[in-house]
Write a structure and sequence with these properties.
Tetracycline Repressor, domain 2; about 230 residues; DNA-binding; mainly alpha
């Protein structure tokens, strides 16, 4: 009986801990939308969430860590949203189209918030920058989705280019995200249109990469990527 009781406590505490953590994140996102990122403090977040300041800092050492938690949550939502299309489609273009649309679908509820903190995320030395070390786990998770787009498709391309393509697709998606941040059309209609019109172009360029006249260009592109990364 004691063992069963202990097991119950062990299962309950992590669940409550995750609930508290999620509450702090959601409260922070709401305050960022309402007050702006700069004006929101950890003390204010704790007060609105109904937890002590010490408890808030126990889960998150700073506002930046809260945004990283938001990035992680967004990646989980994105993966879940595009799972159906990745399981259903085998051609490269429909897989990429579905994943990019799912990306926007999961971001739409945060559209107003995204515009308010973008100026902080765009600073080169900001931990919120998508290229920062702090954003590394979320960036790796995002690139992994595009690797699944490529590896699960019937696409036939040079192996070196195949290895680098997921990161190129992630960079392409970041350009779309930047456009989405500034998209004021109803329901972000223009962002969806941009995706629908550019995916066929990307598909053509990727497919053409294995043609004799384009192989040297593709190899040079791969070399540039690897030299910059080194």
């Amino acid at each position: 009986m004691l063992a069963a009781y202990c097991g119950c406590v062990t299962e309950t505490r992590p669940a409550k801990s995750e609930q508290t953590r999620a509450l702090i994140v959601q409260t922070a996102l709401r305050l960022f939308r309402e007050r702006g990122y700069e004006a929101t403090t950890m003390r204010g977040i704790a007060k609105e969430a109904g937890v002590s300041v010490g408890n808030a800092y126990y889960y998150f050492g700073s506002k930046e860590e809260l945004i990283q938690a938001y990035y992680d949550e967004l990646q989980d939502d994105h993966l879940a949203a595009c799972r159906a299309v990745l399981e259903r489609e085998r051609d490269f273009a429909p897989r990429l189209l579905g994943v990019l649309k799912a990306r926007v679908d999961t971001m739409v509820p945060y559209h107003q918030f995204a515009g308010k903190f973008f100026k902080f995320a765009a600073e080169p030395d900001s931990p919120l920058n998508p290229f920062s070390a702090e954003s590394g786990p979320a960036r790796a998770a995002a690139i992994a989705i595009y690797r699944e787009v490529v590896d699960g498709s019937t696409l036939r391309i040079d192996q070196d280019f195949r290895e680098e393509l997921p990161e190129l697709l992630w960079l392409y998606s970041m350009g779309l995200v930047l456009y989405w941040v500034h998209d004021s059309s109803p329901g972000c209609r223009k962002t969806y249109l941009l995706i629908e019109r550019t995916v066929p172009l990307v598909n053509k360029m990727v497919t053409m990469s294995r043609l004799p006249g384009f192989k040297s260009v593709t190899r040079e592109l791969v070399n540039v990527i690897r030299d910059v990364r080194a």
